[in-house]
Write a structure and sequence with these properties.
This protein is mostly helical and about 300 residues long. About 75% of the residues lie in helices and about 5% in strands. α10 runs antiparallel to α12.
């Protein structure tokens, strides 16, 4: 019988070997994480997944068995997808190649986990395992469309906010014209970095505090429009302050570092929603227990 410690040793060996084999990919991912705001979250994802597996180890590893065939198939599919995307006609840029290589690496890790620990452990640890997918950079076209969507949404919100407070504003595409000021909602202003941070935070909050799948999905879905609203309000605030207080607001600390202020503001909005969903689950759980107890007592008396 294979002990759990031996399974850990084998899986650790698989991960160590993959780090050597994929060293170029890992190095490129780290470089992107520190040089491009679109990828700044990548470097912390595997550590979060590892932490989640460790904190939930009793549930995840309570029942393990070897599942070589499905694990090897999953790892092979990831490697095959990487090969196909780089050798055939799917890759359009260097970023696409990195995305394919990162997906292959994640598939290898998940496949190794399945092979070492089996289906029961995989189901119990499905969230930390799938969380690793966030390591995979968006392919170039997907990233471009995502940024464009965030730009348009942020422009809509900023324009509506400025008008709502009574400040004259004219919109032309991604440009907003205020008295003595014309700004463009450029790629750097799309807010993709803070949007990813908010999405990751909501994913973790839903995992820790909610149990019902549709309520988890609903809470996570709230983060997407709120990310756009947060960025649009931030742009509007900076524009209004630069017109009526000091033009330096467009290049000052609030512009460079103020994203955290609006990020925590969005968390303050999401927190009551999370509590409401959590309490509804608790009420449903108590109601279910009450019904089961009543049914059991009636069956016993009968």
């Amino acid at each position: 019988m294979v002990t759990l410690s031996k399974r850990h040793a084998v899986f650790a060996s698989i991960v160590a070997a993959s780090l050597v084999f994929y060293w170029k990919t890992i190095n490129e991912l780290v470089m992107y994480a520190f040089s491009d705001q679109s990828y700044s979250h990548i470097v912390i994802i595997p550590f979060i997944s590892l932490f989640l597996l460790y904190t939930e180890r009793k549930a995840v590893f309570s029942e393990t068995h070897t599942a070589l065939v499905p694990g090897i198939c999953l790892a092979f599919l990831g490697i095959l997808a990487c090969w196909a995307s780089t050798k055939l006609l799917f890759v359009q840029s260097g970023n696409d190649s990195l995305s394919a290589a990162a997906f292959s690496l994640v598939s290898l890790w998940i496949g190794g986990f399945v092979a070492c620990y089996g289906g029961r452990a995989t189901r119990a640890g499905i969230f930390p395992l799938l969380f690793l997918v966030l390591m995979v950079p968006f392919p170039g076209p997907v990233l471009a469309r995502t940024i464009a969507l965030l730009q348009r949404g942020s422009t809509d919100v900023a324009y509506a906010t400025i008008r709502a407070v009574g400040v004259p504003v004219l919109r032309q595409g991604l440009f907003l014209s205020l008295p003595g000021l014309r700004i463009e909602i450029a790629t750097e202003c799309s807010g993709i970095r803070s949007s990813m941070a908010l999405l990751i935070t909501c994913l973790l909050a839903a995992h820790f505090f909610l149990r019902t799948p549709w309520k988890m999905f609903l809470f996570i879905a709230f983060s997407l429009p709120l990310a756009v609203v947060k960025n649009g309000v931030r742009i509007a605030t900076l524009a209004i302050l630069s017109v009526y207080v000091d033009p330096g607001f467009l290049s000052g600390r609030l512009h460079r570092e103020g994203g955290f202020v609006f990020f925590f503001l969005m968390l303050a909005i999401l927190w009551p929603i999370l509590l409401l969903l959590q309490r509804s689950e608790n009420r449903s759980g108590r109601l279910k227990s009450s019904v089961e107890e009543k049914t059991g007592s009636e069956f016993a008396s009968g």
